[in-house]
Amino acid sequence: MTGIQTGDPGLFGPSSVTWQMHGDPMMWVAGVRALYLQALHPRAVRGVMQNSDFRRDAWGRLMRTANFVGTTTYGTTEAAERAGARVRKIHTMLSATDPDTGERYGVDERDLLLWVHCAEIDSYLQVARRSGFPLTDAQADRYIGEHRVSARLVGLDPDVVPADQEEMAAYFDKVRPELAVGPEAREVDDFLLRPPTHPLLVPAREVLWRRVARLAYAALPPYAHELYGRPAPKPATVTLQLRATGTLLRCIPARLRWQLPPKHILRAMSRLGPGSRPAPYKLGR
Q1: pTM for this one?
Q2: What is the tally of structural domains in the chain?
C-alpha cells in the first residue's frame, strides 16, 4: 500500500470503514431510503420544504448531499472542514414555521440535526449490509462511531450522537413517537415515486428510477411502512432484492463508476496513491 501517506488522508482515511463502504454503488439506493426516512419527522421535513423548492430542485439536493458525503469522506481535511462550515452557515440563516402553532424555529435545532444525521447513517449502513457488503457487527459499530465526525461538521456535539448499533437502535426507539406522515412527507413520497422528467425520459423513469425508489422504500423499517400506509414485501424478500441489485451494480467496473463527477475517489487515489483504492476486502486487514 505504498503511497497512502504521501498526502492528507482527510477526516476518515483509507483505514476507516467509511472509506471502504462509501465507494459502494448501493449508496445511491441508501440515499433515497434516507430521504424517505428523514421525511417522517414533521419538523425536520418542514424545514426542508419551507426553505427550498423541493419538487424543482430535488435532484440538486440529492447531488449536493452526495457531494458533501464524497468531500467529507475522500477530500482533504481542509476541504471537509470547509464543507462543514458552509453547511453550518446556511443552517443558521434558515427557519421554519409550525402551521398548527405558529412557532418559528431554526432548522439547526439539535434534535432536527440529530434526526437527519441518524436517518442518513442508518440508511447507509442498513442498505450496505443487507445488499451484501461484508461488515461484521464490530465494523458496523465502528462505522457509526466514525460518523460522530460528520455529525460535528453539521453542528452537532459528538457526545450526543449514537456511537454504535445499540445506541442507534435506542435513539430510533426514543424518537418514534415524534414521527408522522404529514403533507410534506406525502409530497416527498409522491416526488420519489413520480419525479417530473422530460416526456421522452418517462420510460427510463419507469424502468430505472421507479425500481430504485421502490427498493429504497422497501428497505425502510416496518414502522415507516406503517406510517406511510403503503405495504412492502417481507423483510427477507427485500433483503434478497437488495442483494441481487448490489451484485448487479458491483459488476460495473469501479473505475467506470468513479469516472462520474465529481470524482472524489479518483482524486483521493491520486493524492494518496493507488493503495488507497476503496475495496470491501480491505476491511478484513
Answers
A1: 0.93
A2: 1
**Residues shown for the chain:** 285
Q: Give the cell for residue 14.
A: 483509507
Q: What is the grid cell recorded at 283?
A: 476491511
Helices marked H in the chain — which ranges?
17-21, 27-38, 42-49, 54-74, 77-92, 110-130, 137-146, 148-153, 165-175, 183-193, 202-204, 210-218, 222-228, 235-249, 254-257, 264-272
Annotate 130-167 with b (16+ C-beta within 10 A) or e (fewer): bbbbebeeebbbbbbbbbbbbbbbbbbeeeebbbbbee
pLDDT tens sequence across 15-72:
999 999 999 999 999 999 999 999 999 999 999 999 987 666 666 777 888 899 999 9
**Hey, what's the cell of 268?**
483521493
Contact 5, 73 (CB under 8 A): no
C-alpha cell at 58: 430535488
**95 forms bridges with which residues in the sheet?**
106
Q: Find the domain containing 119 and state its range.
A: 4-284
Q: What is the rounded CA–CA span in Å between residue 63 and residue 59?
A: 6
- Give the phi and the psi of residue 104 in degrees, each rounded to 5: -105, 130
